[in-house]
Design goal:
With 253 residues, the protein is an alpha/beta fold. Helices cover 43% and strands 13% of the residues. The structure holds 3-methylbut-3-enyl trihydrogen diphosphate (2 copies) and magnesium ion.
Length: 253
Amino acid sequence: MSIDPAIEADIAPRPRLRIPMHLGVIMDGNGRWAAARGKRRTEGHIEGVKALRNLVELCINYGVPHLTVFSFSSENWTRPKDEISFIFNLLRRFVVSDLQSLIRNNVRVRIIGSRAGLEPSLVRLIDDVEAKTEANTGLVLIVAFNYGGKAEIAEATRRIAGEVAAGRLAPEAITEDTIAAALYTAGLPDPDLIIRTSGEQRISNFLLWQAAYAEFVFVDENWPDFGEASFIRVLETFSRRDRRFGGIEAERS
Ligand code: IPE
Ligand code: IPE
Ligand code: MG
């Protein structure tokens, strides 16, 4: 009996995939995806949300426990007003329309970033989705919204300085753990893998402190084109990386 080569390729054993404990994704290239198709940038953002839904499902299916997605940076305020309000409305709609399915899928949502400067109704919505998914025990979905890594470190520093000024903390007692605990990501493991789409190879102020030992994988596709095939390719690349953490032996998975 002969097997169709296409089927054979499909059932060929894959090298064992290393699953990241915490995947960070810089979802870049929505505007270029749209421009390449003669569409408006906003249409790229709509497609970007579809790719995000798909990614959440992939993380659930492949057992990735924590996923942080960069959806709006503190530097994105320099964009035209119309685009900013479109992105904000998309976030609102995502939260409202996907809440039931996130709850059904046992997803816990956390929104990180500065709440200062956000409309009170948006802050209420964010608080609401966090509260309604708080007891969930599956995927932790962290949405970095109005987020900047430098601003996060500055905010943490202000909080720690306040503790020192109040006499509750001695400067000598400040450790890396003190700082980590004052960041938005307190209690979460650091990302071990960060993906950026669209061919850009920079961090753009994403998880600066937390990315100290992350593996980076840059892919050329724009964010709306990032699907399961790309996800598996990235995990295969990650699986081949030697992570040494300053030592000489690679970490064994
Ligand atoms: C990423 O896509 C989404 C946000 C930054 C909000 P972009 O909007 O940056 O798309 P490009 O990089 O201009 O193609
Ligand atoms: C990073 O993308 C921020 C998000 C994906 C939300 P940008 O498009 O804002 O980054 P730069 O300007 O190319 O560095
Ligand atoms: Mg961009």
